[in-house]
């Protein structure tokens, strides 16, 4: 019996040079992770180095989502660039904390806060 859930929606905007704000809505799991991964790969291909992953409307994320976040984190670090998780829901924050991902990948409460962190790191 499969769980019915909302299809994944991914929107990409460019708030600053080399920065992609990726807003994810819906369940980020084994059924939807490939779509999320394609959006990130496309942004890497187009030269983006910094990724703001807005997870404020993701009610559930499994290990597939974690794997993709860690993969883009590694890719971005090699550029050099960065990944910031924006405003995760409590359920997603719990997964990030339990797995230690929130120690590695910075978590910000807003895209603006993450942009400030990126600019400060470049100084």
Offer a few descriptive terms.
5 helices; five-stranded mixed sheet; Transcription Regulator spoIIAA; 45% helix; 123 residues; globular; alpha/beta; single chain
What is Rg? 14 Å
Order of the strands making up the biggest sheet: 1-2-3-4-5
Helix content: 40-55%
Distance between the termini: 52 Å
If classified by CATH, what would the architecture be? 2-Layer Sandwich
**CATH topology category name:** Transcription Regulator spoIIAA
Uncertain segments are none
Mean pLDDT: 92
Structural class by SSE content: alpha/beta
Question: Could you say how many structural domains there are in total?
Answer: 1
Question: What profile does the largest beta sheet have?
Answer: 5 strands, mixed
Question: What is the number of E strands?
Answer: 5
What percentage of amino acids are in beta strands?
15-25%
How do the helices and strands follow one another from N- to C-terminus? EEHEHEHHEH
Task: State the fourth-level CATH superfamily.
Answer: STAS domain
What is the CATH C-level name?
Alpha Beta
Number of helices: 5
Q: Which outline best applies?
A: globular
Organism: Streptomyces spinosisporus
Protein name: Anti-sigma factor antagonist
Family: Belongs to the anti-sigma-factor antagonist family.
Domain STAS: 17-118
């Amino acid at each position: 019996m499969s769980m019915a859930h909302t299809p994944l929606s991914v929107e990409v905007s460019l708030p600053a040079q080399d920065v992609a704000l990726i807003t994810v809505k819906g369940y980020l799991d084994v059924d939807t992770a490939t779509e999320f991964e394609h959006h990130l790969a496309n942004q890497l291909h187009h030269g983006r180095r910094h990724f703001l992953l807005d997870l404020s409307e993701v009610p559930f994320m499994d290990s597939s989502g974690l794997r993709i976040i860690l993969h883009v984190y590694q890719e971005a670090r090699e550029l050099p660039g960065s990944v910031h998780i924006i405003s995760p829901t409590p359920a997603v924050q719990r997964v990030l904390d339990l797995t230690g991902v929130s120690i590695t990948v910075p978590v910000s409460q807003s895209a603006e806060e993450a942009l400030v962190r990126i600019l400060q790191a470049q100084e």
